[in-house]
Structures are given as C-alpha cells and as structure tokens.
Amino acid sequence: MPGAKGREDRGAARTRRPGAPPSAAILDTAFRRAYRATPHGATALERKRRRAQLKIIRSAAVTVRQLGLALKAVRGTGLSPFQESLLDQAFGPGALASAERRLVRAQRRIRGLSRDEQKDLARTTTEAEWAAAVRRFYGRLASHLREVDPDLARLATIERFLRERPRVEPGLPTVVVGGFPNVGKSSLVARLSSARPRIADYPFTTLSVAVGHADLGFDRLQVLDTPGVLGRPGRSNPAEAEAEVALRRAATIVLFLLDRSEACGYTLAEQESLLARWKAELPGVPFLEVETKSDLTGGSARRLSVSARTGAGIEALREEIRKLLAGRTPPSEPTVVSEP
C-alpha cells in the first residue's frame, strides 16, 4: 500500500491553489519534504551541515520526480497513432513532444544544479554559508520550474483531453458512424452497441468521439459515435475535425447515415456531397450507406433504411455489417475499445 510520501508526491502536480501556477504545488511539496530532513551527525554543527545538504538533495529529487509524473500521466504505456492524431488536431502538431522536451530539459538542469550546489556546500564551513547555499538553491530551483509552467499546464490539459476520449487497442474491428448533425447517429449507436450517448433533437449534441461494443456473433465489434460534420473542407470546428480523425485512423468500415426526411435541417444533396468527398478521400475503406428515420419517410429503395426509434431495419443493418466485416482485417492503426 502506498505511504503518505507516495500519495503526497503523486498528488502534488495535480493539486494547486486556484489561480496558482502548476509549479506552486510542486515547490510546496518539495520544500515541505526538505524541511522535514532530520540527519544524523556526531555534533550539532555536523547535523546542521548535513541538514542543509539534505534540503538540496530532497527538494531536487521531489521536483524531478514530480516532473516525471507529469510526463508519465500523458504517455503512460504509450499513445496510439489514433490518439496522437487527436492531439495533433486539437493542440497542433508536435505540441505534446515540445512540452515533454522542455520538462526533460528542466529535469536535467535541476539535477545538475543540485550536484553543483552540493560541491559548493562541501567547501563551506559556517552555518551562515550553509543557509545561504540552501536559499540560493531554492531560488534557482524555483526559477527553473517556473520556466516550464506553460508546459505543465499544457500537459495537464492534454491529460484531461485524453481521459475524456476513448482508449485504444489494436486488432478489433471498428465501425465508425458518421454523417451530418442530427441525422440519428447517437440513437443508432445506442441501438447497435453498449454505448449510451447523449441523445437530443438538436444538432451538435455529440461533441467528441464516443464508443460502445456490439456482438455480431463472430467477433467483438467497436462502434464509434462521432460528432456531426457539415462538410466544409478546411473550415471544420474542433468536434468536426475529431470526427474526421476517427474516420481516417480508426475505421474498419464507415457507417454513413443520411436523413432523407431532411428533418435534421440539411438537404439530402448536402449530405450526399459529404459522403462523396469522404469516399474519395478514403478509397480503401468500405462505406455502408444507411438512411435513417424510416418511420418518417417510409424507407427507400436506394439504400438500407432504419429507424432507431422503432427498431425497424436494425437486424438487417447488423447483417450488412457482418457481411462487410467478414474476411476483413482491422486497419493497421489501433482502434477505439473503451468508453472514457
């Protein structure tokens, strides 16, 4: 069971006063741990010298460890290409790597500063000199740490972002459900899988990729619900861009939904234009075109029609998915497997 020290270390980088920079919590923990140093020594003077040395060693070690925990919180055992693409889309290419490099550099500088200060401390002989060395080290340590405050904040934001998105695992077939807003994606995902997405009769209810699972009798299937996309190349909002990343990185097949009733607020021609663009951009991915809200339109002779409200056509849709998946291997990219 982890002790108080371990709990304190793990919590320092995540717990900070409102409005305080991320470095504040780390420094509070580092200085508190250093203050508790109780060294042994033959004389009072020797104990004071060793206590000054321990303050430098401990505060540096705690700080370096906290920076390491901040790095580990994002990477963990590694990120999949799907997650990397989501991060590049949301924060800009290389944003995570840049923050990580700066924190690793800060760790290296703090270790070097600790070594140098200990060497200087060994050459001093008075209590005043030892106290001055500790103060000097604390000031330099704080300066190095405050330089990476923006990077610590960025890593914390990225960690939250990833926690709110599905995790990934290679090798499982994945159906990515896409289309315009309010065409019935979330309702259909709830019918097909274990996912329980938020469902409402207005556009843009789904703001990020979500996932559920389904059993089609031959394999465990992942079903991704994606935000609605308006089909505006180069002008996508963050939610739309996330949907397109899911298509490109996670799809074994794409289940493209169209609302022929146009109750979604968009014409069928607009919806079919997005479908045509995606099919041209993803020539290696099979598309299953499905018209939703058959309870409003009475169905279509052109495509499979379903109604998530009544359940009409759902079994036929499952059978079509089985046929498309038979003999197909999932994409080389890892695919989404668990709900956030």
Give an account of the 3D structure.
By secondary structure, this protein is an alpha/beta fold. It folds into two domains: 4-163, Up-down Bundle (Four Helix Bundle (Hemerythrin (Met), subunit A)); 167-338, Rossmann fold, CATH 3.40.50. The protein is built from twelve helices and eight strands. It has helices at residues 4-12, 22-35, 44-75, 81-91, 95-122, 127-147, 149-163, 185-192, 238-250, 268-281, 294-297, 314-325; strands spanning 167-169, 174-179, 210-215, 220-225, 253-258, 287-291, 304-305, 335-338. The strands form two sheets. A six-stranded mixed β-sheet has the order 3-4-2-5-6-7, sandwiched between helices. Helix 2 runs antiparallel to helix 3, helix 5 packs antiparallel against helix 6 (127-147) and helix 5 (95-122) packs across helix 7. The longest helix is centred in the first third of the chain and has 32 residues, at 44-75. The chain starts with a helix and ends with a strand. Mean pLDDT is 80; it is low at 195-208 and 332-340.
